[in-house]
Amino acid sequence: PTTLGVMGGGQLGRMFVQAAQIMGYFTVVLDPDVISPAGLVSHHHIQTDYLDPQGLVQLMQRCAAITTEFENVPAGALVTLGAARPTAPSADAVAIAQDRIQEKAHLARSGVPVAPYAVIESAADLAAVADDLLPGILKTARLGYDGKGQVRVGTRAELAAAWKALKGVPCVLEKMLPLAAECSVIVARGWNGECVHFAPQRNLHRQGILAVTQAYEENMPLALSQQAVEAAKNIANELHYVGVLCVEFFVLTEGSPERASLGALVVNEMAPRPHNSGHYTLDACDLSQFDLQVRTLAGLPLVQPRQHSAAVMLNLLGDLWVNGVTPRWNAVLALPGVHLHLYGKLQANKGRKMGHLTVTAASAAQANATALQAASLLGVEAF
Ligand code: ATP
Ligand code: MG
Ligand code: MG
Q1: Is residue 194 annotated as involved in ligand binding?
Q2: 246 and 317 inside one domain
């Protein structure tokens, strides 16, 4: 059988491996950790650093094609892999997504604006920041996720202090926008440029971490939804992207001056991989985002996925395992339409994504009602 490889051993790699195995592929995971969610379920695990030449050679020798599951995999490793094997997404696309400064420039070409921002790489940049970018969010250009590497600043003094606290690394200061909602669009684009998509899902973040995703048609006005899908496809096309790509959007508050000047939709950022907000596709769609990742990588036909159930996804963070006590799975699993996914992580740290739970139902109202019951049983904040 053909073997597919993945850089990274997290939960996204695990779900990729599982989707690949269903279609008969062998899988290899490269991850430095002895035990990782994907390494645990893969046929083979190469335990080296991402840039270790021996690890990369092994991966290339074993695999017909290679993908990645997290955006901070060194782009240099993907360059090496891409020279020998079909590697998707490409090092170029990943490098852009890894750097907010480059990313913003690309996103601005999608047909939907980005939040007003300034690049801060020097004291002079800091001094030149326009007053109307405050209050804002200072974000490190690299290596941020789940709201890490971000500081909210109200004044120039706070901005200066925050940049200093971030050790003066290259940053982007974004104007704080009034958000009515957040959503994301997941697209899958093949080697031949063919592109399919999931409808936008609505995302609720808490402390910068995705908490809840609601996926059903009533989520968004059709015109906005179409605009978001078109923008996501434009971004994928402009990057000549191959694989699964997620684009996050803000929907601005009606009647706000920002909405008057920017429009209803603002593009936030992209992730060059399947995304937490697309986990519901495993249970609510006839093809999941991971099925599409396998298909794009293996050069198999892409078809437009169809969502067959309304869905609400709750993230299960380490906070739920307070004092080592296991959450009440029995009570939750007694509810209709509950799909429990746990990633096999041994250590339940605060804020760590341990698993997720998707509720599928015939209607949005039912999915929300059951998800609220599940949240209450687990001690997850209501939404
Ligand atoms: P991810 O884990 O999604 O990669 P991240 O750390 O890269 O997250 P962002 O997506 O940039 O972070 O921001 C995290 C959250 O902070 C957003 O989902 C949104 O709720 C809020 N946020 C970010 N930028 C802005 C903004 N300009 N105005 C208002 N809220 C914002
Ligand atoms: Mg991000
Ligand atoms: Mg984000």
Answers
A1: no
A2: yes
